[in-house]
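Researcher: Here's the sequence for the chain we discussed earlier.
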Amino acid sequence: MAEVPVDKNLERFAKKMSDLDELGNYILKGHLLVEEMVTRIVESFVFHREFIDEARLTFHQKLQLARATSTSDHGNSMWGLISILNSLRNEMSHSLDRPKLQPKLDALRHKYFEEFPKESSSLSDEQVALNAVLACMGFLSAHESEVERFRWWVEKLDRAINQNEDPAVILKEIVGTNGGND
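Model: Thanks. This is the structure I predict for it:
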């Protein structure tokens, strides 16, 4: 029986699948976690989430909406770090070659050290990627809390205005919960 030659594509597949590295893991999975947070922020700010799903928004569009929900951090430069992380993830998901990724990695490194100048510049790309993801998640977590407090107040107003609930009952809730800050 003749030996079947190994297909070049299968060889390439086997090699690339064995090359799953920390950097790819941090960027791809980290971006997914960041995107989940951005989506929750956007969805927390609206009353009919199903229309957000139907809009099929890109990550960039969701990010801009999340940024627009901020009362005080809309100008924070951390939004730029999140945007660069997204750009790197996009490049990584469309290219298997590290040299093509290097400019995006360099941009992430530059922005990370701009945000955190006291960090050691000798950090590896993997360490920078991990730290950048964690920093983005920390920033978004604080923003998510801000959006949740705003949503809490809007729900109280809605009950008082549109659902004709007794304002005294709602006021008791507000006082009893420290104005949504618990």
